Amino acid sequence: MPPSTTSAREALIDRLERKARFLRVNALALNNRTLHAGGALSSADLVAVLYYHVLRVDSANPQWEDRDVFINSRGHACEPVYVALADLGFFPWDDLHGIEDFGSHLHGLSATTTPGVEVSMGSLGTGISIATGMALSLRTQGRPGRVYVVTGDGELQEGLSWEGALSAGKYGVDNLVVIVDRNRYQSSDRGTETVMPLEPLEDKFRAFGFATCAIDGHDLGHIVDALDRVPLESGRPTCIIANTVKGKGVSFLESGHVHCGRFGRDYDAALLQRAIDELDVDPPLLRVDVRRSVDSVREIPLGSTTDVFSEKLNEWADRDRRVCYVGVDTMDPALQQKHPDRAFDVGIAEQSELALATGLSMQGMIPVIQAWAPFTPLRNFDQLRTYLCRHDCNAKIIGWALGLVNNSHGTTHHDLESIALYRVVPNLTVLTAFDDDQFRLAFDAAMSVDGPVVLLGQPEHYAPGADGLEKIALPPQDEFVIGRNQWARRGADITLVTYGPALRYAWAAADRLEAEGIGAGLINVTSIKPFDEGIIEEAAGAARALLVVEEQSVLGGIGSAVAEIIAERGLEVRFLRLGIPDCYVEDVGDWTHTRKSAGLSIEDVIRTARTMFEDG
User: Fold this and answer.
1) What pLDDT does residue 190 have?
2) Residue 443 and residue 475 in one domain
3) In terms of domains, do 478 and 448 share one?
4) Residue-level pLDDT at 293
5) In angstroms, rounded to a whole number, what is the distance separating the alpha carbons of residues 35 and 62?
6) Nearest one of 397, 354, 356, 357 to 379, comparing CA atoms
7) What is d(CA 47, CA 150) in angstroms, rounded to the nearest whole number?
8) 252 and 326, same domain (yes or no)
9) Statement: the pTM of the whole predicted model exceeds 0.85
10) Helix, strand or coil, per DSSP, at residue 576
């Protein structure tokens, strides 16, 4: 190699190494505000080479027709991408200080609300298919751009990843480059080869029609050489397996055991400073002492029902050998230790989770399935409807994170449609539980049903300071009766019908209405399907108005169920639904702020109720 060429390469690698350090230290500083330090650090070198050497993009013209396209398939590892985009001028640098703050375009998962981001990401495993479609479109239109997609290794457990790979191989899209961030850990903080083995990974992609190579994902020279060679073979898509270390550069993160760590929330500022010091680079340009508006009203968890779930699961498994656990990138450690032959984790694979549970049930087991909204039921609705419920399987789905509680991650993590979907599935019983005591009773009730049941719990009980909400003491409940809902309080003027996270602020609204002299009752909907029609008829006769308050779409949620009862029974009562209108909720912040932007604050409930009472 001529001296001038050698000199140019050394200068390039030196510049990229400095940029990688710049991304890494500022991603850490950004992690004071957002999530997923481990994946952010493992991918920083890849992002540096892409944005500062490979990608043909223009911050002055983000929609330039001949640009290259970058897709961050696991959108949660967004920190280095955001830092690079700000550094390149796609948006003002100071915007980074407000990530996940009120009204910010920077969500906890990369979204098209941010200039320079091509695809809003959410559930994992989708990037390769979208990238394949984009590459086909560019080729068909004769446009010169390439499509680069970085995927986590854990998300390759999703079948959709391989469906996309099949299409890429079939159509020979050699303008597609898949880069696998092979850090060997995933959100369960266990190794991918423990959760669901992927090896031989390079052979798999080669069998699907890709030209492949494996590199050291932290050696800038290796990364440059691999990306400068693409397409590795004409007429074939490229897959680069980048072997990386999760949490690269920070000793206490490199164990792989920090996926969702947030400095300044899970850790103190001194630990964040220690991490920055370990990188041994210039201080971050981001100020780590900046306080966002959201930080002053951060919700305080009052406890987690997931602990109660583990307690009840193990109680039933200890006394009935048919009871088993099925998780999706989750595991119940207590059950796994006591009954390893009845503890199954299918990895990041929601469709497989329900299909596998169907098979377990059909051969005599009772699977208890831990599911996180919105991925269940949105990703696996066909398996729920066509298999689990059509075969009337004795299986229990324990669902978490109903509504807007996953607010900071943005729209893709809101669960606003599941009630509408669950309501239309034959054979399915659907229950909700508000607090730990009610969850215990509901779990026993679900296990007593010889058929499919969904039990929706709350992963954490929040008391947001901005709303002044406190822990609610529901009336004592001796038993949980399927098909019967709960009078939480009674009032002569208006009855609020609610459930799940909405019960907390509906209760506060009822208190305020009572203080104004408006008698406000409240029904806690614990049995969604079958629905308690009698309690609605009783409420319609006892009060002048009914108001449904829910963190679900107004199209098909509990509001629709109550409207059907009122219409079919000819009940004479003023009725309104207060929920999510027919739109996506794009605002981020804390749960309180996101609800307010969606029209579900305490004040919204009071204003709507007061209007109904005054007009009724």
Assistant:
1) 77
2) no
3) no
4) 55
5) 26
6) 354
7) 9
8) no
9) yes
10) strand
CA distances from 9 to 16, 82, 217, 226, 492 (A): 10, 27, 18, 14, 79
Q: Are residues 286 and 359 in the same domain?
A: no
Burial 567-577 (b: 16+ CB within 10 A, else e): eeeebebbbbb
Same domain, 412 and 288: no
pLDDT tens sequence across 465-474: 445 555 677 7
CB atoms within 10 A of CB 52: 19
The identity of residue 500, as a single letter, is G
Question: Is pLDDT above 60 for 297?
Answer: no
What's the alpha-carbon Rg for the chain, to the nearest Å? 26
Residues comprising the chain, all counted: 616
Q: Which domain holds residue 284?
A: 12-295
pLDDT category of residue 257 using cuts at 50, 70 and 90: low
| Contacts with 516 (C-beta within 8 Å, 6 or more apart), sequence order | 610
CATH at 545: 3.40.50.920
**Domain assignment present for 357:** yes
Same domain, 446 and 548: no
Beta bridge partners of 523: 487, 497
Q: What is the CATH number of the domain that holds 235?
A: 3.40.50.970
DSSP letter string, 357-405: HHHHHHTT-EEEEEEETTHHHHTSHHIIIIIIITTT---EEEEE--BTT
8 Å CB contact between 183 and 38: yes
